[in-house]
Design goal:
The protein is built from twelve helices and no strands. It is mainly alpha-helical. It binds a DNA duplex (13 and 12 nucleotides) through α2, α3, α6, α9 and α10.
Length: 223
DNA sequence: TGCCAGGCCGGGT
DNA sequence: ACCCGGCATGGC
């Protein structure tokens, strides 16, 4: 027996999927690249991250050994376009150190632990918070865990499905309680939410062509 | 031009 | 336990 919440979330998903088509995330070729991208895109437009990733590749630095050796200043200069380049260089380094030291730089080793344990240890790495950890779990590890971001909160608050003050964990469990635990569904759903958010769901609600017709922000209501 | 972008940390209350 | 400033580039 499906609850109202379950039906509503699936309906929204279907509408977004129909509108935008399959997203086939993550936009990265390797598991390492997904992790790097997840850190670089923190509070940053993906277009800025792309340049940084292309710089890293150009210097053959999208590779564990090189990332271990590279000096922090050099790394920062390569990822400049992604913003916060000093903190992000530190964060990349702390992830790389953790990954190399605890898992011998092998993703099979990382993901063979229980997902809760992987999440917990990722969160203990300085610079990796819940969204980055969950992005790594879902998109690099194929773990069925729902990724929450600012768009998710904004959109589903406007749809009155969550409260304004809902925490990351609260929003995540709302989705996971109301959706089947399917990696592919979570993968596409989050990607579609980002797509919607980028193009239609700005902080200042002026969203007339938004495919979610029930969203009150279409009428420029204040939130 | 100011606002915004696929967060997170650390210090202060 | 919350709250807030700091971190920074690039696109519109």
């Amino acid at each position: 027996m499906k609850s109202q919440g379950q039906k509503r979330l699936l309906k929204i998903y279907n509408r977004l999927f129909k509108h935008f088509g399959p997203q086939s995330w993550w936009p990265g070729e390797t598991q390492l690249e997904i992790c790097v991208g997840a850190i670089l895109t923190q509070n940053t437009a993906w277009s800025n991250v792309e340049k940084a990733i292309s710089n890293l590749k150009k210097e053959n630095c999208m590779e564990l050994g090189r990332l271990k050796e590279i000096k922090i200043k050099k790394l920062a200069s390569l990822i400049k376009s992604s913003g916060y380049f000093n903190v992000k260089a530190e964060r990349l380094k702390s992830f790389i150190d953790y990954f190399a030291n605890h898992h011998r730089g092998n993703f099979k080793n990382l993901f063979k632990e229980k997902p809760e344990d992987v999440r917990h240890s990722l969160l203990s790495v300085k610079g990796i918070g819940p969204e980055t950890a969950d992005s790594i779990l879902l998109y690099a590890g194929g773990v069925p865990i729902f990724v929450v971001d600012t768009y998710t909160k904004r959109i589903f608050y406007r749809l009155s499905l969550i409260v304004k003050t809902a925490t990351y964990d609260e929003v995540q469990s709302f989705f996971m309680k109301n959706l089947p635990r399917k990696t592919n569904l979570y993968n596409e759903y989050h990607a579609l939410i980002v797509m919607l958010g980028k193009h239609y769901c700005k902080p200042n609600p002026v969203c007339s062509p938004c495919p979610l017709k029930k969203c009150p922000a279409r009428k420029n209501k204040k939130f």
